Amino acid sequence: MNALAAAALQSSELLPEALDISFKPIPAVLVIAMLALFLVVGYLFKVADTEGMWVAGRSIGNVENGMAIGANWMSAASFLGLAGLVALSGFYGLAFIIGWTAGYFVLLIFLAAQMRRFGKYTAPDFVGDRFNSDTARAMGALTTILIGFVYSVGQARGMGLVGLYVFGTDYVTMVVIMMAITVAYLSLSGMMGATKNMAVQYVILIVAFLAAVYVVGFTGDYSTVLPQIEYGALINDLNSEFSEPFANSSFFLWVATAFSLVFGTCGLPHVLVRFYTVENERTARHSTVWGLFFIMLLYWGAPALAAFGVDLYDASQYGPTYAAEGGMSGGEGDLIVVLAAQLSNLPTWFVGLVAAGGIAAAIATTAGLFITASSAVSHDIYTNIINPDATQREQVLVGRGTIVVLGAIVTLTALDPPALVGELVALAFSLAAIVLFPMFFLGLWWEKTNRQGALAGMSVGLLVWIAAVVNDLIVPFSDLYGQVFPAIGAALVGTPLVFAITIVVSRLTEEPPEDTKRMVRQCHSPEPMSRQESAEDVATDGGETPADD
């Protein structure tokens, strides 16, 4: 982990007086009403079959799916953590904005329509069927569960911190309550209810965030009509990291972080599953464009709000503490969005609206993560490997049980998280970029990628990522390894390595079956397919490609 992150973690506690941690009636009512709305929507769109549980019946339109992509994507790491990373690290934080945005262009061009034409339920489903391997399916499912776990810990931390501000209780209590509500509505609703809720959650979070950017900018005389640009006038007055490139990180780490986030975007199972929820490949493309637009609305303003928050904090009564300790704490950085509104002396109800947006963002992403992780266990491991004769009822029950168990594990880990919100999420991106993105890209664009190549590549990728995380966060064992494979940016070297291993092994071993090659070609066919049709159906005239192992 970089020096800045380490320093932030040494002082990750909030200053209670800085954030005014106390029970606030109006914000509390807003948050409770919002959470009740999520439960009602989840109940109204509850599902009982696997089609609705995992892919919402493939019935979501492009604008609604674009809103779901935006809400699914803009987690606590975006709503809270992105501005927090910029507040704590300045120029280095821009790597997160660039990485988390540019990845969607790669998705749009190379994966969105092709994934929809492949037409499965889950990311591990793609890996298992494309490479004719239950072992690859299991590794894909394991990676999906790991991503869901690491990513969700950051969301739980964000929910706990915001709940702490609104209800004035302790952090542990808020994490437990918020996660319990999230697990309850997800266990009930599945992907259909989660998608409907994501559209609602997007509206809440984007209204809250843009209101904060404009109102804080206007009341502080920082900006008028375009705070996303006007905040530049502040840069030279802030700490050196805002105006001095690489003041807190090396050029290599900046590039490595951006690279991991770009290609991690293209390997995240909860992002790719959004393409399976739409009717056809055309809708998949259009919803990606809408999603990028909705994401841009928040990302464009995050640096501005970070700059406003840092300046307000520096000028407040807490400024001397800030200067003496070399910067605000990690906890305050993670809540800079709420803190900026608080220090602007805005009405309590307005600050509560901003806080509610943070909770909505965290819950929306947690929903997508838990659904993909539960489908990996229920559909890919239990049904495809352990019990092929499982009924739909059994699959749904296993999926719901997985949500409950994963929720409990995430909650316990979030009580004492190992990193900041944005950094925790970045670790999940690094894993997705190293292990899953090469499989998705080669699986769709090179028909000769085979089972042996995929297994070799995924195995090496998992080992590289696990070693990087252990070296950075748990037990350091090599400075050289940490420099080449920083946990957050391990994909810069790791992803090309996995590509190379997969290609070489595929070249040295037997080519995949002809049915598999035809299936890959169908993913690029200009001929439209029906809602329930897949590339496998067309390539094999309705038959199935058997597993080789």
From TrEMBL:
This is Cation/acetate symporter. The keyword Transport applies. It comes from the Archaea. Gene3D superfamilies: Sodium/glucose cotransporter (1.20.1730.10). Keywords: Membrane, Transmembrane, Transmembrane helix, Transport. Residues 514-549 are annotated as: Disordered. It is found in: Membrane. GO terms for molecular function: transmembrane transporter activity. Pfam families: SSF. GO terms for cellular component: plasma membrane. It is a multi-pass membrane protein.
